[in-house]
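DM between two lab members

TW: hey, do you still have the DUF2264 domain-containing protein entry open?
JB: yeah, one sec
JB: this one, 638 aa:
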Amino acid sequence: MSLYTIQSPFASNPVETRDELRAYLTGLLDPLAPHTSPGGARIHLGYTGTHYDDIAAQLEGFSRPIWGLASLSAGGGDYAGAERWVRGFASGTDPNGDEFWGYMRDKDQRMVECSAIGFAIAVAKEKLWDPLTETEQTNFAKWLASMNDKEMPNTNWLWFRVFSNLGLVRVGSPYGDKERMVKDLDHLDTFYIGEGWSRDGPEGVVQLDYYSSSFAIQFAQLAYSKLAQEYDPERCEEFRNRARKFAFDFVHYFDSEGRGVPFGRSLTYRFAMSSFWGALAFADVELPAPLTWGVIKGLQLRNVRYWAKQPGAYYPDGTLTIGYVYPNHNMTENYNSPGSPYWCCKSFVTLALPPSHPFWSAKEEPYPASLLNTTHALEKPLHIATNLGGHTFILSSGQQCSYPVKQSAAKYGKLAYSSAFGYSVPVGSLTLEELGGDNTLALSDDDGEVWKCRRDTREARIENGKWLRSMWYPWKGVEVETWLVPPTKEAPLWHLRIHRVKTDRKLWSAEGGFAIYGQGKNARALEPSTGEEFGTLENGPEARATSKAGASGIVELGQRPSRKGKPLRTDANTNLMVPRAVLPTLFDEHEAGETIWLVTAVFGLPSVGDKEGAEAGWEGEWKKRPSVPAEILAEMRK
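TW: and the structure you got?
JB:
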């Protein structure tokens, strides 16, 4: 079968209406049946390992689809397989049963899975709690409450205990602990940093990725504001106000085709990244223009339908793969089990709403025209977001994970992240091909054997609302200062990177632009351009690659004749979006004792929709060159 004819199992579903969204959910739940244990409590989807035990991994496979099942049930829908989960609640919490999940210990993965379970009984008591016998309900409640006296990580995990207790309180169980819930909420409020944003941890943590929004915090605040109004009205309104502010930043992380900008960890959760938009509707939070109900509906559903159409997101039986656009274990964390991707089921929360809700009754609207061809400095996450010239991406400086995460330099330390081109992760520890060094300045002090990329970014700030400025110290005696300048209307497809490198040793450098699909029209590797539509270009201080995914290039604008461009073919499965990529890269060598200025222009124009290649006329945009801002030029001349 040709690569181009392979389709997702859900490709025929347009995912435009409530019934079609429900059908998509059903299509995800049905394939889980053959993988479910006799008692229903465990769903085994594969044999890959995690840092936690296999029983917890199978609990994860059981619990995460509940986000969708509970929402469907809360909205009056029926699912014939719901009895599998009701059975599982009984058998998984029976301490004398064969499928007992085990009581929770300190910082136990089981705690994570309690969030969906608590939400489920909070919104769908009649269908998921009431069918249990009194003994089963007692076992269930004791198990869920067993986390109340355990130590939890000082992160978004505290929300999982909040929802466990909220669920127990709402079903009338004596095991629900309101006092514990209030203490956790008071502490979670210390993560709030203003303008709608919360960091994922205490002061000093600079991590504002999708966990600060759709994966955890914003989603949880909105769901809580809907479900706890009678217990905690003042806090509920505060959460809603935070969401109102946050939405006007978060909208810039999505493009007009529905894709979110891949950034940070846990991206195998896929369309969970858009669940914030559904949670707004669930909590009945209406926003001012341009974020009308029709726009909110479009932001949510376009993202879901994008993922419904990606064949690599699914195995042939319809279960989800571990990866992003295709199966890829290189980009995963050590807490990603085969059941982890079902966190995406949070985006089915709008099924809890009746058809009369304005989310469903409104006509879907496109991405707001007033937000197209704009650039916005987002102060709290230290991002500059832009979709100028038809390319949605963020410039980034200042975030890093506060604890060891695989590939953290790639997930948080890169200079730019694109909704169309994604980002790349290392698949090895030596060559540049293994590195996948897109949108980074990679440095080596051993003749190119080992390469370092920015991970621990210091002194990061947005200057005058115009550009990002930051420091990076790869070795003692080496410091890198970087300015990231967004596109301008004069050169809308380019952004600038200016680096000042001070070094006490000889260095080798390699700076990458956007990695791009690396195959030609015949699905063979891209060849040097011979005047045909697709190909690679290597021309002194510049490099470029064009393919069905669009055009990507990089150019040296400074006075360094030693800096040479080359389209580098990265190792397979480095890039999140495509398994075979080409990376336009600039190479140079730098002597010890130098202060080096690298002035880099990066070009990117993705294809649009089903159209192959960059939009006609892009070559004219390629010939333009951006200008270094006068303030930075003055710095360079000191």
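TW: got it. The radius of gyration is 25 Å. The first strand starts at residue 192 and ends at 194.
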